[in-house]
What we know:
The protein is of the alpha+beta class.
Amino acid sequence: MKRGFLFLSSAIAGVLFIAALQFIGADAGALSVSPADRLSIEQPQYSGKWKGNDLAVEYSYSKDQGQMDLSGKVLFSYSMVMGYSRMEDFRLAVIFLDENGRVLKETGLATNAGSFDPISFHNRINLPSNAVFMAFSYQGRAYDTGSNSGGGITSFWHSPAY
C-alpha cells in the first residue's frame, strides 16, 4: 500500500512540477520596463523631455494610422561634455511597451561618433497595435580629454528592459 501511494504521489508531484515550469516559462523570455522608465504614448500628439544620467532627450511625436512620427534631439549632460573629448558607437533607441510594460518592439533612432554636440533624429515608425508606452535606451563609449586611443575610456548606457 505504501509503495503504491509513494508512486502515485511522486507521479502527481512530477506532473505539477512540469506544469509549473511550463507556466513560468511562458513569460520567461518577455522583457519588461519598470514604471519609472515608461512614457505614455496614449495621446495622438505630445512633446516632452526625458532625462537619463548622461543625457536628455527632447522629443515630440504624432500618431496616425498605426504609425508614429518621432523626432527630437539628444542633449548630453554637462559632465559628459566637460569630462570627455569624444565618443564612439553612440546609439539611441526607442522601446515600445504594452500596458504591463512588456517589450513589444525596439527601434534605433540615432547613431553617432565624434563630438558631444546635440544629435537630431526623425523617424516614422510602425507601432505595435497594443503599444501604450515607450522608453528610451542608449549606449556609447567616451574618451576623456587627455587620453589617446587605448586610455581613459568609459562606457555609458541606459538599458531599462530587464
